[in-house]
Write a structure and sequence with these properties.
By secondary structure, the chain is an alpha+beta fold. It contains 31 helices and 30 strands. The radius of gyration is 36 Å and the shape is elongated. The two termini are 34 Å apart. The strands form 8 sheets. Strands 1, 2, 3, 4, 20, 21, 28, 29 and 30 form a 9-stranded antiparallel sheet that branches. It has a 5-stranded antiparallel sheet with strand order 13-17-18-16-19, with helices on one face. A 4-stranded antiparallel sheet has the order 6-14-5-15.
C-alpha cells in the first residue's frame, strides 16, 4: 500500500494527469474516423474474370479449372469455391486464420499472371474481403427526358463526381446509348457483287485516324473518321459493278439503344441509377459531404434542372443515425448510473467523486482507441456503452469501503488506505476475471469473430481504464473532497438488511436447508433449457435502417414480355404496402435485384422486420401467376438464402438424383419456403450440326459457313465514332428473317438457304457450374418464413442425418446454417476457455482450489436469467447476444468474489462459518446492489434502444441485464449456501 499512500498525497499530480487525459481524449475524439462498421481485412478474397464471348463450358475449362489448380498450390489457402456462368468466372478463396493480408498478394499476382495468357478475357478483378463496400452512395435520376438524362449523367454528373478526390468510381445504370445501325440490303449486295465482309472492311479502313509519317520533322496526321451519319451513308464502296455508296446497299440510321443495365423505379424505366464508391482511406461521411457539395454546385450552375436527382441510400446517414442513437444511449445510461449512485449513497460529494470516473474512463478509452487506430463505429460505440455501467463498479466498491472505515472512526488517510486495502484483492480479481473472458474471443472463427474481437478489446480497455481511475483518482479525491456524516438514516436499508439476515440465517443454520436451496436452483436451471427452442436464433442483425434488398430469381428462358409483366406486378404489389416509399429494380438476366426504400419518421406504421416480411410474402404470391422461381432476401448472408445444402460426388447423375430426393424432404419442413436448387437454374441454346457433304458440294468450307452465320447473328460493333465527345458504336446487321435457317447465302450453285447445310438442335445448358476445392457440387437453397433459423436448423439436420451414410456422395450444410453452426461451436469453445481462465485467475488470487468453484456456481444461475430475458423479450440469440453472454461471465462473478473474499478475511480473523457468511453478506450487500444497479442502469437505454442501432445494442444489453439481475439476487443466497456445504464445522 506504499504506492497508494504516495498517490493520495500527490493531489496536484493526479489533477494534472486527469486534465491531460481529458484534453488529449477530446482531441482524439475529434480525430477518429466515423464509419458504420470497422474496416477489417478478412481472411478471404474474391476473384472475377469476365469473358463475354465464352460459353459456360468454355469458361469452366479455360478459366475456372486452371485458376483453381493454380490457387490450390498456394500454401495457406483453406478453401477455393467457384461459380462459372456464361461469360464470367467468380471464385472465392478462404485463407488460414490471420493470413489474409499475407496471402492476398500471392493470390492477386497468380491470378493476373495466369489470365494474361488466356485469350478472350475482358477484365480481371481481385479484391480482398473486408475492403470498402463497392457503392455506398446511390442516387436516382428521373422525371425527365431519358435522352437528356443520359447526356447529363454521362457528360456532366459522372465526370464531375469522378474528379472528386474522395470518389473512386461512379457507375451509371440504365443509360440509353446511341448507336449507328447499318442494315444490309441482300438484293443490292448481290446485284453489286460484294459481300458484307468486304463492305465492313472498307468501313473500318475509312473510319481511321493515325499518324502516317512526318515531313521535315513535322508529323503527318491522317483523319477520315466519320463526322456524322450523312458521311457514313455517302461512303464510297468499291464493288464488281463499279463505285457505289453505302446508302445504295444498306440502310443507315442513328438510333437510341435499350438500357445497358435495365433499371426501373416504381415500375417506370425512365430512370438512371448513379452508384458512387469512395476512394481508399476516405471516410463515408467525407465522401458523402463532397458528393453533396458537388451536386449542389451543379444545381447552382443551372444544370439538370429539368430532371430530379434523388438520394436512394447514403451509408453516411446510417453512420450519423447509428452514432447519434448510441451516443444518446451512452449519455442517458451515464445519467441513470449517477442517479442510482445518489439514491444509494445519499451523498452528493460521494456521487460527484464516483461520477468523475465515467468521463475520465471514457476519454482514456478513446485515447487508447486513437493509439490503436480504431474508428468510431457502431461496435466501438456499443463497447463504450456497455462499459458505462461497469466503469463505476470498482470506484463504488473502493469508495464504499473507505466510507465505512471513516464511519468506524478512522482518519481520512487511514480510512482511504485501510478501505482500499480491504477490497483491493477482490477488485483486482473481479477486474481480471472480467478482462480474461475476452481473451478467447480471438478463437471465434469466420468474419464475425474479427468484428467481435474489436468490440471485446474496447470493452476490456474501458474496464482497465476504470480500474486505473479507481485506484488513483478516487482515493485521492476521497481523502480531501468527501465529507462524512456522523450518522446516517439507515431505516430503509436497515429493514432490507435485517430481512436478508433472517433469510440467510435460516438457510445456513442447518446444512440440509443449504442443500435444499442448492437443489432448488439446480432444478430451475434444468427446466430453463425447455425455453431455448422458443428463443429466435440468427447470426448477425441487419444494419440498414428502413431499407432492404430482395432478389427475385426468374424461371428459365423468360422472355422480355414476361419480364415487363413481372416488373409491373412487382411494383403493384409493393405499392400496396404502406411503409414502402420507393422500389428500384435492376435486371441481371436471370434475376431482378430489388432495392426497397421504406418510410421514415412520422410515416412509419410498422417495424422494419415486419415490413420486410410483408414484402417477401407479397412477392412470393407472384410465384403462383408469374414465371418466378424464388424470392430471397439479398442482405442476409452471401447468397441471400439462409438454408443452403451442398452435395458433392463423383457421379453427377447420382448427384442429381440425390439432390432431387433431398429437395423433396427439405420442402416438407415447416418454415422452409422458396426452395430451389442448381438443377432448376438452366437455359436453352441452339447447337449447330453441319452437313459436311452438302457444304463440300456447294464449294464452301465449314469456316465460311461459320462466318456467314456470324454475319447474320452478330451483335458486335464493327467500328466506333466519336461525336460531341460521345463515343457511338456502329453495328451492322442483316435483315434476318424470323428463322435464320431461311436466310440465303451465295454458293457455286447459286443462292441456297442455310438450312441446306446446317441444322439447329435445342439443348439445355446450366446457367452456373459450382465447384469447391476442384470438385463439382450441387446446392439446394431455401428461405425461412414463420420460423426462426435455429428451429429450421434442427429439422434440416435431422433430414441430413438420414443422407449422411451414403458412400458415393457427401452432404453438408452451407450458408447461414453452416455459419450459425460454426459460430455456435466457436462461441461454446470461447466460453469454455473463458470459464477456465476465470478459474485460474481466482485460484491464484484466493490461493485456493475450492473457493473459485464456489464463486463460479453463479454461472448456471446466470444462464437461467439470460434464457428468461431472451424468452420474455423475444430478442434474438445472435452474435451480439452471444458476445453479451461472454461479457456476463466476467461481470456476474464480481459479486460472488466480493462475498467470498470478505468471508475469507473474516474466517482468517477467527470468525465462525455462519457468522462470517452473514456478516460478509451484510457488509457487501450495499456495494453489490450498487454495482449491479448502476451497471443495469447504464445498459438500460441500450436494451430499450430504437432506431437502426437497436438490433445491435438491444440483444447484448438484454442478456447482460437479465443475467446480472437474476444472478445478483440469487448470489446473495446461493453462494453462502454452497460455501456452507463445502466448509467444515
Amino acid at each position: 500500500m506504499r504506492m497508494l499512500e504516495w498517490i493520495i498525497h500527490q493531489k496536484v499530480l493526479m489533477m494534472l494527469v486527469s486534465v491531460f487525459i481529458i484534453g488529449i481524449g477530446i482531441y482524439s475524439i475529434s480525430h477518429l474516423d466515423t464509419e458504420l462498421t470497422p474496416e477489417v481485412s478478412l481472411d478471404g478474397a474474391s476473384i472475377t474474370v469476365e469473358a463475354s464471348n465464352m460459353s459456360v463450358e468454355d469458361v469452366e475449362r479455360q478459366i475456372t479449372i486452371p485458376l483453381e489448380q493454380q490457387l490450390q498450390k498456394i500454401v495457406g489457402l483453406d478453401e477455393v469455391t467457384s461459380t462459372t456462368s456464361t461469360g464470367e468466372s467468380s471464385l472465392h478463396v478462404t485463407f488460414a486464420n490471420g493470413k489474409g493480408d499475407q496471402l492476398y498478394q500471392a493470390v492477386e499476382s497468380n491470378v493476373h499472371f495466369l489470365m494474361s495468357d488466356i485469350p478472350n478475357v475482358d477484365q480481371v478483378n481481385v479484391q480482398q474481403d473486408g475492403a470498402t463496400a463497392a457503392f455506398e452512395f446511390i442516387l436516382d435520376l428521373s422525371n425527365g427526358d431519358i435522352a437528356e438524362m443520359t447526356d447529363f449523367a454521362k457528360n456532366t454528373l459522372q465526370p464531375r463526381l469522378e474528379k472528386l478526390p474522395e470518389v473512386q468510381e461512379v457507375m451509371v445504370a440504365g443509360l440509353r446509348e446511341q448507336k449507328v445501325i447499318i442494315e444490309w440490303n441482300d438484293d443490292a449486295l448481290e446485284n453489286h457483287g460484294v459481300t458484307t465482309g468486304d463492305v465492313i472492311g472498307q468501313i473500318q479502313q475509312t473510319n481511321a485516324a493515325e499518324t502516317i509519317g512526318d515531313v521535315t520533322s513535322v508529323e503527318v496526321y491522317w483523319d477520315t473518321t466519320f463526322e456524322n451519319v450523312d458521311a457514313i451513308q455517302k461512303l464510297p464502296i468499291s464493288t464488281d459493278q463499279g463505285d457505289a455508296t453505302l446508302n445504295d446497299i444498306a440502310e443507315v440510321s442513328l438510333e437510341t439503344e435499350d438500357a445497358t443495365a435495365d433499371t426501373w423505379k416504381n415500375g417506370s424505366s425512365d430512370v438512371l441509377m448513379v452508384q458512387i464508391a469512395r476512394a481508399e482511406n476516405v471516410s463515408q461521411k467525407a465522401m458523402t459531404t463532397a458528393v453533396r457539395d458537388e451536386i449542389s454546385k451543379i444545381k447552382s450552375a443551372g444544370l439538370g434542372t429539368d430532371m430530379t436527382l434523388n438520394e436512394v441510400i447514403a451509408h453516411a446517414d446510417f453512420v450519423d443515425d447509428a452514432m447519434g442513437d448510441v451516443t444518446k444511449n451512452i449519455v442517458i445510461g451515464g445519467i441513470i448510473a449517477i442517479v442510482m449512485l445518489l439514491l444509494f449513497l445519499r451523498n452528493i460529494r460521494a456521487t460527484v467523486v464516483i461520477s468523475v470516473s465515467i468521463p475520465t474512463s471514457i476519454l482514456l478509452t478513446v485515447l487508447a482507441m486513437h493509439v490503436l487506430d480504431y474508428s468510431m463505429n457502431l461496435l466501438t460505440l456499443i463497447g463504450l456503452g456497455l462499459g458505462i455501467g461497469m466503469m463505476v463498479d470498482s470506484s463504488i466498491v473502493i469508495l464504499e469501503a473507505i466510507y465505512r472505515k471513516k464511519e468506524q472512526g478512522l482518519s481520512s488517510v487511514a480510512a482511504v488506505i485501510e478501505g482500499t486495502k480491504e477490497v483491493a484483492t477482490a477488485i483486482t480479481a473481479s477486474a481480471l476475471t472480467t478482462i480474461v473472458v475476452f481473451l478467447p474471443i480471438g478463437l471465434i472463427g469466420g468474419d464475425s469473430g474479427k468484428y467481435m474481437l474489436i468490440l471485446a478489446i474496447v470493452v476490456a480497455i474501458t474496464l482497465i481504464s476504470s480500474v486505473l481511475i479507481a485506484f488513483t483518482l478516487i482515493p485521492t479525491l476521497a481523502k480531501d473532497f468527501l465529507r462524512y456524516k456522523k450518522a446516517r438514516d439507515n431505516a430503509g436499508p436497515g429493514r432490507i438488511v435485517a430481512f436478508y439476515k433472517k433469510v440467510l440465517l435460516w438457510c445456513l443454520e442447518k446444512k440440509r436447508r443449504s442443500l435444499l436451496i442448492v437443489v432448488s436452483f439446480l432444478l430451475v436451471f434444468t427446466f430453463s433449457f425447455f425455453l431455448i427452442p422458443k428463443i429466435p436464433l440468427n447470426i448477425m442483425p441487419d444494419i440498414f435502417n428502413r431499407y432492404t434488398e430482395v432478389a427475385i430469381d426468374l424461371e428459365n428462358d423468360v422472355s422480355e414480355e414476361e419480364k415487363l409483366a413481372i416488373i409491373e406486378q412487382v411494383n403493384e404489389q409493393l405499392q400496396q404496402i404502406d411503409d414502402v416509399e420507393a422500389n428500384f429494380l435492376l435486371d441481371y438476366d436471370d434475376r431482378f435485384m430489388a432495392s426497397i426504400v421504406m418510410t421514415k419518421g412520422n410515416d412509419v406504421t410498422k417495424e422494419q422486420e415486419l415490413v420486410t416480411e410483408e414484402i417477401i410474402a407479397s412477392l412470393r404470391d407472384l410465384q403462383k401467376t408469374e414465371p418466378i422461381r424464388a424470392v430471397e432476401r439479398a442482405l442476409d448472408g452471401v447468397s441471400g438464402y439462409p438454408v443452403q445444402i451442398e452435395l458433392a460426388g463423383e457421379d453427377f447423375n447420382e448427384l442429381q438424383a440425390a439432390t432431387k430426393e433431398l429437395q423433396t424432404e427439405i420442402r416438407a419442413i415447416d418454415g422452409v419456403v422458396g426452395i430451389t436448387s442448381d438443377m432448376d437454374n438452366y437455359s436453352t441454346r441452339q447447337k449447330v450440326s453441319i452437313d459436311e457433304d452438302a457444304i463440300e458440294e456447294a464449294g464452301l468450307t465449314p469456316l465460311q459457313m461459320k462466318d456467314q452465320l456470324s454475319a447474320f447473328l452478330s451483335d458486335e460493333a464493327i467500328s466506333i465514332v466519336e461525336w460531341d465527345e460521345t463515343k457511338i458504336p456502329i453495328y451492322a446487321k442483316s435483315s434476318t428473317s424470323e428463322n435464320v435457317l431461311n436466310e440465303t447465302i451465295p454458293t457455286m450453285n447459286g443462292k441456297e438457304e442455310l438450312a441446306t447445310f446446317i441444322s439447329l438442335k435445342t439443348e439445355k445448358t446450366p446457367n452456373q457450374i459450382v465447384r469447391k476445392n476442384g470438385k463439382r457440387y450441387l446446392s439446394i437453397m431455401a428461405d425461412v418464413e414463420g420460423a426462426d433459423l435455429g428451429t429450421v436448423n434442427k429439422s434440416v439436420q435431422d433430414v441430413l442425418n438420414r443422407f449422411d451414410n451414403e458412400e458415393t456422395y457427401s452432404v453438408s450444410l452451407a450458408g447461414d446454417l453452416e455459419e450459425q453452426q460454426d459460430l455456435m461451436n466457436d462461441m461454446l469453445l470461447a466460453m469454455a476457455i473463458a470459464i477456465f481462465l476465470v478459474y485460474v485467475v481466482m485460484a491464484v488470487q484466493f490461493n485456493h482450489f475450492g473457493h473459485p468453484l464456489i464463486v463460479m456456481a453463479t454461472l448456471p444461475i446466470t444462464v437461467v436469467g439470460v434464457i428468461l430475458g431472451l424468452f420474455l423479450t423475444q430478442a434474438e440469440l445472435n452474435m451480439m447476444s452471444g458476445m453479451g453472454i461472454i461479457i456476463l461471465i466476467g461481470i456476474v462473478l464480481n459479486n460472488a468474489i466480493l462475498l467470498i473474499d470478505r468471508t475469507k478475511q473474516l474466517r482468517k480473523d477467527g470468525v465462525p462459518i455462519v457468522p462470517s457468511l452473514i456478516q460478509a453478506g451484510e457488509q457487501r450487500m450495499r456495494p453489490i446492489f450498487m454495482t449491479t444497479l448502476t451497471t443495469i442502469g447504464g445498459m438500460l437505454p441500450l436494451a430499450l434502444a430504437t432506431g437502426m442501432s437497436a438490433d445491435y445494442q438491444a440483444p447484448m444489453a438484454i442478456v447482460i441485464i437479465s443475467g446480472l439481475l437474476f444472478s445478483t439476487i440469487i448470489t446473495l443466497i446461493l453462494i453462502p449456501a454452497i460455501y456452507r456445504l463445502c466448509s467444515r464445522g
